[in-house]
Structure formats: C-alpha cells, structure tokens
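Appendix C reproduces, verbatim, an entry submitted by the partner laboratory led by Prof. M.T., so that reviewers can inspect both the input and the predicted structure.
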Amino acid sequence: IRDRVSTQSTWEQKKGEREMKKLVLGSLAAAMVATTAMAADYTLKFSHVVSPNTPKGKAADFFEKRLEELSGGRIDVQVYPSSQLYKDNAVLKALRLNSVQMAAPSFSKFGKIVPQLALFDLPFIFKDLGHLHRVQDSEVGTKLKSMVTAKGIVALNFWDNGFKQLSSNAKPLLMPEDAQGQKFRIMSSKVLEAQFHAVGANPQMMPFSEVYSGLQQGVIDAAENPVSNIYTKKFHEVQKYLSISDHGYLGYLVVFFFLCLKKKKKKKKTLR
C-alpha cells in the first residue's frame, strides 16, 4: 500500500504542476476583481476533509504557497484539512455563507445543484486515468463546470484522488456476491447507493470524518476509498481485507465563492 500511495502521489504532483498555474491565476484574477489597485490584505479560507498528506491535501498546501507568492502577500490563504472547520456535507453551505471562501468537495456533494456531476460516481465507466482526463478536459468537463458556476459558485478545476478500492472486516471481496449483507459506508450519492444495492449490500451514508470510528465500532463493515485515503486515515488498522478493484473514481471540483474575500481589518467585512 505504501508503494501505491507513493506512486499515486508522484503522479498527482506532475498533474498538479500542469493544472495549478491555471487554477492559481484564475483565483488570483477573481481576487483582484474584488479588490482595488491599492488592495489591503485579504483572507481566503480553504476547507477540506482529508489529511494534509493526501493528493488533495498536498495540492491545497501548494495552492496556499503559490497564491500568497503571486499576490505579494496581499492574500492570506488559510488551509483547514481533516474537517477542522466543516464536514464534507456542510462545506458548500458554508461557502455560500462566506464562512469559507474555497473548497474542493467530491462530486457527490453537488448532487442537489448539478446532479449531472454524478457521472463521475458511475462504476467502471472509465478505462483508466487517461480516459478520465480526456473527458474532464473535453467539452463535457467544461459544460459541467459552467453549470456549477451558473449556480453562483465559481468552478475552477478538477482535482484527482484516484480510483477506489474495497475494504472489509467481514470477508475478502473477490466476487460481487461477497458484498451481500455487508454494511458499506458511502458518500451521499444516489449512484453509489444503487451500486451497492445492486450487489446485495447495505449502503450507509456517513461523513468521512466518522469512517474510522464507524469501522472500529462495527457500525459499518466495509468502505470504498482510494489507497491514499485508506493509508493516511489508517483505515488499514480497522479493516482486515483490501481488494484492489479500481471500480470507481474519486475526484474533486475546486470551487470559489466569487467576490467573497474577507478584508483583514479590525472590523472584517465581506466584499460584494
């Protein structure tokens, strides 16, 4: 598992280098629209739910470094990992309330505003990461991002975690029937719910921050996660079996609430 995480992290870094410049410059441009030429310092809070040493965690930290450099210190990016501020089912609401200014939720979190993003939750729909990226970089990806932006939240870019694997305490998951009767933790997604019902399992929606304790206490039997999440959250401590299935993809959409940077004054106010 450690080797798999290292390989995946290296790949993520290379892709991040290609995409980060566009993401940083887009956010910087949005920030400059919200400020004047003689702008004061501003705070941008970036909330996410995974560990700092995951692909998303490392990307968020690199984004913090680059945006602060490119803004000459005028924008203070504060990254809050591991659900320190909000759980994964609450961050979009917090974004609209300007409690945070940036986030990178998984696609399932957009179900109520752009259900078409559930495309990425479908199992076995992508041959490999190359196929996936061609879709994201095509008119399909552009259209999906524009649909989110039309809802008042600026969609900046897609970030990867990777393909998901199956873990369980009950038994090895080698055939579809092996999942029968097992309680699987899922994100809030009708597609993922249907996926596990189709193999006779019992899907249980649960915030990511509660998965370790849920597995430890037997509230759930099994889960699906990329290897990086399994390793960094130490799920291997509370799971007996791991099946390398690559059955589904977990990625994120980086979003920004336009004209929402908080000015760092004695009395903070929100720009409109």
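The chain is about 35% helix and 20% strand. Additional entries are available on request from the coordinating office.
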